[in-house]
Amino acid sequence: MTENIGVIGKKSAQRTGVERVVNAPLPTVYGQFRAVGYLDHDRGDEQVALVYGDIGTDDVLTRLHSECLTGDAFGSQHCECGDQLASALRAVAAEGRGVVVYLRGHEGRGIGLLAKLRAMALQAEGLDTVEANLALGLPVDARDYGVAAEILRDLGVASVRLMSNNPRKREALLRHGIEVAEQVPLLIPPCENNITYLRTKRERLDHHLPHLDAVAHWS
User: Which residues form the active site (predicted)?
Assistant: First the structure.
């Protein structure tokens, strides 16, 4: 995309959509990735796709990972996000090709970091994750995946094998024109600290988490 300089004396047209800004090598403990950076002009968010290998166009192993500071960076056991991110990167490297789109602005299912922490405080008092968001007057899930679809299109991806337990991610990609050839489960063994949260995701948010049946002894 080239910048619209505009006519002298008139305000330049504001950019819209997603623009690729940089493509840099990123060696990681999981393998040699490329970090492809984007600017979402509509929301102002900086986004990144971690690309492994020659991904091609069809049936690309893909993870849309919602930003989670507490899980991804701090190792929180309130959720399984950090383990899911690590598992997705390992899976892509093992496959030899694939993409992990790291979606900033998705913290707390789109409500933001401080609101998420407030919701976590309410969960410590006995509310579940859905009830906590609603008690704060916030949506249960405010995420939008249009940017992810634009990034995938820019990378030349037409269809994905989507690593997710969330049917709403699949539905969102289909709405935005990305074919989902397969939904690949990304099941992380639960712990006592996140079992209630995960059960709520299964029972109230329709996440496919059949492995929770194996830990029925936890109340």
Answer: 141, 143
